[in-house]
Amino acid sequence: MGHRFELQKDVELAATPEQVWEAIATGPGIDSWFMGRSEVEPREGGRTSFTMAGQTQEATVTAWEPGRRFAYQTAPGPEGAITAMEYLIEGRGQGSTVLRLVQSGVLGDNWEAEYEAMKVGWDMYLGTLAAYVAHFAGRSGAPVAAFRPQAGTPEQVWAAVAGAFGISGPVTEGQRARLTVDGLPPIDGVVDLAGLPTYFGVRTDDALYRFLHSGTDRGNVLVLGHHLFAADQDPARAEQAWQSWVEKLGIG
Q1: Which of 71, 153, 164, 169 makes an SS bond possible with 86, Cβ 3.0 to 4.6 Å?
Q2: What is the side-by-side order of every strand in the sheet holding 37-40?
Q3: Among 206, 204, 144, residue whose Cα is nearest residue 177
Q4: What is the distance between the alpha carbons of residues 80 and 251, in angstroms, rounded to a whole number?
Q5: pLDDT in tens, 43-91
Q6: Measured between alpha carbons, how far is 9 from 88 in angstroms, rounded to an integer?
Q7: Distance between CA atoms of 72 and 87, rounded to whole angstroms?
Q8: CA distance 202 to 204
């Protein structure tokens, strides 16, 4: 039996309503801060699609008010599961904007775990959105993903990931972070998200690197979801390099 739910998050962004709209209501904009790849047909009644790990989910645009409101809803799935997303944009003074996200619908039998995972996951993705509009507005980021199933406990995962970046002890925002991945240019940045034990993020001059630990009934999974903004970077090559890196990481 399905369970109805509603989740609401507000975030203040250092961007104009027009910039926020481009980030949340266009495929290239969404790809610059959210996981997977997205496409949006720009009209009410249009179609959206979200593709991740070879699976595509489609939805119908239910509200299209540029600069103000964007919403869409999926068709009923197994056990009647439905997801509806609504973004409400409110401009503030000095070029800032408050974005309200409302996610609602029907979840399956494992709804409590799914709901908790969404609450924490949105904190990371909205933090990534804030970093995108503040530091990379007007640029399109290429999404790169890698996965490590059976990764180990959060303590094991974050000790390995933080250690690879040269960080020992507590991870805090503002720390310098450096990492070398075989086949890619050296990474030299700053910790800009420290939501441990669930997520961790590093920002450089041309990328946002995101690491998410998900404890599920299928085991502990480490998910890498990065966004590359340098014009000369090859996303396919980067994805292969990161997948190799995460498979060799000393965890699990």
Answers
A1: 71
A2: 3-13, 97-107, 82-91, 69-74, 55-65, 47-52, 37-40
A3: 204
A4: 37
A5: 999 999 999 888 899 999 999 999 999 999 998 876 677 899 999 999 9
A6: 11
A7: 9
A8: 7
